[in-house]
Amino acid sequence: MRSRRSCLAVPGSNPRFLEKAQGLPADEVFLDLEDSVAPSAKEQARKNVVAALRDGHWTGRTRVVRVNDLSTAWTYRDVIEVVEGAGDRLDCLMLPKVEDARQVAWLDTLLTQIERANGLPVGRIGVEAQIESARGLVEVDAIAAASPRLETLVFGPADFMASINMKTLVVGRQPPGYTEGDAYHYVLMRILMAARAYGLQAIDGPYLQIRDLDGFTEVARRSAALGYDGKWVLHPSQIDAANDVYSPDQDDYDHAERVLAAYEQATTVDGRGAVMLGDEMIDEASRKMALVVAAKGRAAGL
Ligand code: GLV
Ligand code: MG
């Protein structure tokens, strides 16, 4: 699985940002053709994005392009121009506002045709699906199962809050007046369950108050605690915070490696299924939990 602790949004209509993004330490960079690009700039943005993928230096980063959603007239040309122009430099396409598994199947089929026609390896380009409406959430299980190309489900809080008429204008923070708990808990969990049931990553969406790093970190910690793999970042200042929050801390990582070593010794050398590690009883289920933390820690270079 690719690392996606920080997924940097870069408007495809802004060549300066496309240049600058290449020097930033985000795990994933997604070049946007959708909501950060004005309708009048859509066609030029496609050209900018193809040029940035072809000529830019993106080594080590997951390279994604977000196309327009299927209720618009732009989607098919977005896919064709980007994949024909730079398909060999692209890891995934992101499809926004997914509401139906057939939309993902459509993208899968179109990608296969373009790959065949252009001599690209069939099936290499992955898909990220944004869940950002009530309808998308209700259909999320079928969407998660729609294509072997799917790598992630991505929560889109701004569009989602609009879709359910949530009474707030601040994306990511709790709606004013809601003091009983976490207004996003159900949605985050629902997406996470569908993602894990089908072996996908789960990515949290943007926090729009880019000067409020404490607020960003608080919101990120919440989805990281549930098991989310990463979060969108809209500004360079959010990247380090995301990389930090979605990596295990050093103590937890060290502990996970100790659990794995002790359990390995217990089962293979001592022939036992459960063993004490300090005051803690560990068994096969503890090994599975430790593997999750150890894998994330190793990926983060701890
Ligand atoms: C992202 O696309 C969002 O709507 O939050
Ligand atoms: Mg959106």
UniProtKB/TrEMBL annotation:
InterPro entries: Aldolase/citrate-lyase_domain, Citrate_lyase_beta/mcl1/mcl2, Pyrv/PenolPyrv_kinase-like_dom, Pyrv_kinase-like_dom_sf. GO terms for biological process: oxaloacetate metabolic process. Substrate binds at R66, E132. Its cofactor is Mg(2+). Residues 5-236 form the HpcH/HpaI aldolase/citrate lyase domain. Gene3D superfamilies: Phosphoenolpyruvate-binding domains (3.20.20.60). One of its GO terms (molecular function) is magnesium ion binding. The keyword Lyase applies. Its EC number is 4.1.3.34. Mg(2+) binds at E132, D159. It holds the Pfam family HpcH_HpaI. Keywords: Lyase, Magnesium, Metal-binding. It is an enzyme of class 4 (lyase). It comes from the Bacteria. This is Citrate lyase subunit beta/citryl-CoA lyase.
